[in-house]
Amino acid sequence: MKAKRSNSIGSPIGGVVPILKKIQDAGIPRLIRKCLGDRVAQAQYQYHDAFTIWTLAAICGCKRIEQITKLKKKLEFIPHLKVPSHDTVGRIMKKLSTSIQIERAITRDRMAKINHTHYNENINLNRMLIQCTKAIGALKENISYTLDFDATYIECLRRGSLRPLDDQGNLKNAKIGVNPMVCLIGNLPVFISMRNASASPSFKIHNCVENCLRLLDESKIKIGRVVSDAAGFNKVLMAMLDNRGIKFNIRFIYQKRMHDFNSIIKNCTTWKRTEIETANHFWDCEIADISYTVSKLYYEIDAAKTYRVVAVRIPTKQRLATSLSHEEIERRVMIKKKMDLLEKKRVLKEFGKPYEDINWKELDGYLYKFYITNDFQATSEEIVKEYNKRGNSERKLSFMKNDFSWNQLPFDEMNHNTVFLIAAALANNIFRGVLELFRDKVPGLRLTNRLPEFRERFVNVACAYIRNRFVFFSQDIFYDELII
Using CA atoms, how far apart are residues 219 and 216, in angstroms rounded to an integer? Predict the structure, then answer.
């Protein structure tokens, strides 16, 4: 048999072909042009070329922008796909940045001083992020979503990332980085506000959430509930959510100087015993509802709003030792012996670093947790369980750092890195949309798949472009049906 030379071009990452097809079918390049406009006429690459190629690069495992150049040869088999160099992608991202704003404030330290906080909200790019997420099918109209928001610390050596100095001019913290605020719907980042590391989690939280809700309203994405940690305990934010008809569930910030609230707690007679299971513990506790009116200053003309505070309490070890009956003590001893026996047999789940919950507040022999809400219909247990689920938001941000390179910011300027975070969030949201589109057609594909699993299962397949058609060398997945 005589060998013949073949002019076909092949690639080991053929799974990007159906992904690119879905991006094009969803009209994402058109949406990017609509939100960001076009580059100058002589430009070889448009904005959508840069975002498309970074999405494909991230899904293929690239962690840094400069790795796009190495990926280019593997993508050349796709006709009409423009693959800009990493330098071009970097220049385009920098071009899309907006100016950094500075907030000047007086600190409440013992030695008060002026503090300057740098922040950057790129509204156009966040609008593009939401519209493209909806286009790929990850967000849908006529569904009421829960919005979560959290600040996440990203350690990096970039301008604007230094921790504030103490009175002696030394850094308050050994780590330096940035502290962006991220709004999430499930696994989807939908709004990113970049802040330098001196910003507290509650810095301009009301403006951030209001801008996010406004952009979601533009795309007809409905938010029915908001869940937040103590950073969301802001009376302006809570009033805004209440006026919009959005139910919120926020960790209440308890302070000992709240004398009226302390008096209500001490005189409360509606405590009931209940059991609440969390990810790390099983609470045998008491629970009660308390009416709480947010205090107002003399110059605020709006009426004070009254909300519902759900209080959970468990007795301290000292109180428990003096209040338990003999039968209850024996029962707890027997349970402890059984647990020790199961632990020796390695039946119980083993944890790594011990989880320490520091949010309990001690008062009169009890440890308390408080949650404030404007939802008067849900049960007290439902409010607590809903809040406890928000711990997953930190895991989702960890996925962004590890899978989509949020922990490897490429640029020196903070506002340039805002663009990169949004570009990486777009790649994540397209990945989530593709999972939903393909899960019923690809065996073994699940919505819970992490990016490395998806890449191994779906992306890494040999493919060639022969006689104007793609040929996939896979016996498990029918890729031809996915690109129709």
Answer: 5
The confidence band for 131, taking pLDDT boundaries of 50, 70 and 90, is very high
CA-wise closest residue to 208 among 223, 230, 193, 219 = 193
Q: What is the pLDDT of residues 222-264, one digit of tens each?
A: 999 999 988 899 989 999 999 999 999 999 988 877 888 888 8
Query: For a pLDDT cut of 90, what percent of the chain falls above it?
Result: 55
Q: Which helix (H) or strand (E) holds 106?
A: strand 101-106
Instruction: Answer yes or no: are the C-beta atoms of 223 and 213 closer than 8 Å.
Output: yes
| Angle at which helices 86-95 and 68-75 cross, to 10° | 120
CB 150 within 8 A of CB 394: yes
Q: Do residues 452 and 460 touch, judged by C-beta distance below 8 A? A: no
Residue 194 in contact with residue 415, Cβ under 8 Å? yes
Strand order in the sheet with 9-11: 9-11, 463-466, 469-472
CB 412, CB 94: distance < 8 Å: no
Q: How far apart are the C-alpha atoms of 202 and 393, rounded to whole Å?
A: 17
| Residue in 322, 324, 313, 315 with CA at minimum distance from that of residue 274 | 313
Domains in the chain: boundaries: 9-96+439-482, 113-349+356-401
Whether residue 51 has pLDDT greater than 70: yes
What are the structure tokens assigned to 23, written together? Answer: 């991006």
Domain 113-349+356-401 has CATH 3.90.350: yes
At residue 181, what is the residue type? M
Residue 433, classified by CB atoms within 10 Å of its CB into exposed (0-12), middle (13-18) or buried (19+), is buried
pLDDT band at residue 5 using 50, 70 and 90 as cut-offs: very low
User: Is 175 in contact with 165 (CB distance < 8 Å)?
Assistant: no
Local confidence band at 3 (pLDDT 50, 70, 90 cut-offs) = very low
Give Cα 118 distance to the centre of its chain. 21
Nearest to 143 by CA among 187, 185, 190, 184: 185
The more confidently predicted of residues 210 and 292 is 210
Instruction: Write the DSSP string, 1-67.
Output: --------EEES-TTHHHHHHHHHHTTHHHHHHHHH----TT-SS-HHHHHHHHHHHHHTT--SGGG
Confidence band for 360, pLDDT divided at 50, 70 and 90 = confident
DSSP per-residue codes, 210-241: HHHHHHHHHTT-EEEEEEE-GGG--HHHHHHH
